[in-house]
Amino acid sequence: MKVLIIGNGAAAISGAKALRQVHGDWEIELVSDEVHPFYSRVMLPEYLAGSVSRKDLYLVDWDFYRKLNIKVTLGTQVEALEPTLAKAITASGERIHYDRLLIAAGAKPVLPDIEGANLKGVFTLRSIADVEAIRRYLGSTNVERVMIVGGGLVSLRSAEAFHKLGIPVTMIVSSSRLMSQTLDEPASQALLRAVREAGLEVLFNEDVTAFDGDACLRGAQLASGGKVKGQLALIGKGVRPRLSLVQGTSMAVDRGILVNEYLQTSIPGIYAAGDVTQSYDLIRKRKVCNGIWPSAVRQGRIAGWNMAGLAIRDDGDVPMNAVHVFGCSICSLGVLNGDETCVRGSFQEENYRKLVFARSQLVGALFWGHVRDAGRYYWLLRTGRNSNGRMPLVWAGEKRRC
After folding, report:
1. Neighbour count for residue 142 (Cβ, 10 Å)
2. What sign for the dihedral angle of Cα 358, 361, 362, 363?
3. Domain limits, CATH 3.50.50.60, in the chain
4. Which residues of 355-384 are buried (b: 16+ CB within 10 A; e: fewer)?
5. How far apart are CA 102 and CA 3, in angstroms?
6. Residue 374: pLDDT over 60
7. Where does 122-235 sit in CATH, by number?
8. Are 310 and 320 in contact (CB under 8 A)?
């Protein structure tokens, strides 16, 4: 039995490990366009800032693959599938046979249709190669200001990395506040204060319509008619699942590859896990693209077990974002819109807590400062064992009820 795994991230590695736990003699081949062993994308901004080395990013070494008896083919892009023939087609035209397939190809950065986006000096941040391209550019170009396009998590962490390098930063945000998809209004304002106190410029309700420059970037034109000067731009407008390899097949897709509770796609023998999928959200009660590390690990593990012949159900995802940026420790769980909220603490004392309820059921939580209790509420959200009026809200060693 041969299992082919497309990808080399959290879902792919978890899938390979789970499969090997059950079947020590099955053939496993892992194919990825990456050229590095499995590494932490979460730490890429730290690598950009020089806080960690490339070696610090690696979560496994080359010996890991050898010990698990995994054939590794890196630097190779799988461009298409032939499900009826059980083959994957690489960019070079090679056809790789499989008996079972795990698609864990991840996601790619969203690139808005902006004139001049192909100018030298415009980047995204998703891989080691991206960081090293940025560092080479910084070493060869006089960058007086960096423009960050976006106001989400990747944009903020990238902005902090450039700030640590001593380069002035302007953030260009299309919405009216920072991290608008994951924070409430008070938390966004508190984060904005921290960002501006660090000396960054933040422009809200603005979109870049064009990048200016001849061969190299010199600035950006805004939808309002204004202009921003900058010699480097980083686009951080989120990611979308990498679906090009399943185009032309009968596989069911929406925003991502649709999977059932066993991580099976609509084509027998083919599974998918991680950022490439659109899977069930326990809070929203529908299939969404969550794209978070813990979900990728869990999905990969369950997909691996099920490819091995087990029948393990994946209950679904709980949206989660945790970050320490510009001195602010933040954890957001679930959704922050409901019909009732319970708020305790303050941003000044770094113990802000917010619980969100819908029809007396906990659907979300936000922690600022002391985030150590977040894991407890994550599991309450996963299990559904919670209701308004009976939930103790804990911080700084004190117990109180909403």
Report:
1. 7
2. negative
3. 2-108+239-307, 122-235
4. bbbbeeebbbbbbbbbbebbeebbebbbee
5. 8
6. yes
7. 3.50.50.60
8. no
CATH 3.90.70.10 fits 2-108+239-307, yes or no: no
pLDDT at 386: 60
Give residues with Cβ within 8 angstroms of 104, minimum separation 6. Answer: 5, 6, 7, 9, 11, 12, 15, 272, 273, 274, 276, 296, 300, 303
Nearest to 182 by CA among 392, 24, 328, 361: 328
**CA 276/CA 257 separation, integer angstroms:** 6
pLDDT category of residue 208 using cuts at 50, 70 and 90: very high
Confirm if 12 and 30 have CB atoms less than 8 A apart: yes
Its CATH class, for the domain covering 327-401, is: alpha beta
Q: Would you mind telling me the total number of residues written for the chain in this entry?
A: 402
**pLDDT tens, position by position, 96-154:** 999 999 999 999 999 999 999 999 999 999 999 999 999 999 999 999 999 999 999 99
Strand partners, 228: 220
Task: Give pLDDT tens digits for 261-290.
Answer: 999 999 999 999 999 999 999 999 999 998
pLDDT at position 360 is: 83
Q: What is the pTM of this model?
A: 0.94
Which part of the chain is CATH 3.30.390.30? 327-401
Cβ neighbours for 397, distance < 8 A, ≥ 6 positions apart: none
Strand 351-358, strand 217-222: pairing: unpaired
